[in-house]
Amino acid sequence: xxxxxxxxxxxxxxxxxxxxxxxxxxxxxxxxxxxxxxxxxxxxxxxxxxxxxxxxxxxxxxxxxxxxxxxxxxxxxxxxxxxxxxxxxxxxxxxxxxxxxxxxxxxxxxxxxxxxxxxxxxxxxxx
Length: 127
Fold this sequence. Notes:
This is Bacteriophage spanin2 family protein. By secondary structure, the protein is mostly helical. It has one domain (36-126). Helix content is 86%, strand content 0%. The chain has 5 helices and no strands. Helix 3 (82-97) packs antiparallel against helix 5. The protein is elongated. Residues 9-16 have low confidence and may be disordered.
């Protein structure tokens, strides 16, 4: 009687150990997937953030900034990392709020705000 009980206990330990290893492997795979997603989100966000705008056409530049803001807002929703999400959201707000008057009257100030947001995004993505 003791042999089947001992074998059952060994089998139970093996199954429990196997479940723990499987759970650990699943968590590792999930972390890798989150990292890959974060890298993809960062690459896309930085690509949109650094897209050239035509300074000779302020209205077109504003339209491009607003379109990028909408796209970045959607992209932020897919960011698993909350720091990256916040940086993308901040950049999107800066782009969404720009006006023709900003680009004509104070282009350096607006470009400095945008540069600060891009730097924050770069830092969040690197962290």
